[in-house]
Design brief:
With about 100 residues, the chain is of the alpha+beta class. The chain has one domain: Alpha-Beta Plaits (2-Layer Sandwich), CATH 3.30.70. The protein contains 3 helices and 4 strands. A 4-stranded antiparallel sheet has the order 2-3-1-4. α1 runs antiparallel to α3. The chain is flat and about 50 Å long. The two termini are about 20 Å apart.
Length: about 100
């Protein structure tokens, strides 16, 4: 079964207030098996537009990634994020097919 991923791009408008969101979202991520692969850090936009912060979270399945986003635990965290950040978020299913090296 393919893994699921959250890919988020965010600009923090209130970094101090955003800390409450980070603390609360840990409950949802733990419950649904979320694991940070990318959590901010240096980045360089080589094509297109992006935001100042990039986050990638891996979940055991695509369904778990969607369930986490739709959960009451994450809804509580999202409420704390309101007015603290502008975010674009996509949930995507991982690829389990052939890779370029396999061709």
């Amino acid at each position: 079964m393919a893994k699921g991923y959250w890919v988020a791009f965010a600009d923090l408008t209130d970094p101090e207030g955003y800390k409450a969101y980070v603390q609360e979202n840990a409950n949802a991520f733990k419950k649904y098996g979320g694991r940070f692969l990318v959590r901010g850090g240096p980045s360089e936009a080589l094509e297109g537009e992006t935001r100042s912060r990039t986050v990638v979270i891996e979940f055991p399945t695509y369904e778990a990634a969607l369930q986490c986003y739709r959960s009451p635990e994450y809804a509580k965290a999202m409420a704390l994020r309101q007015g603290k950040a502008i975010m674009d978020l996509v949930v995507v299913q991982g690829h389990e097919g052939p890779q370029p090296a396999d061709s």
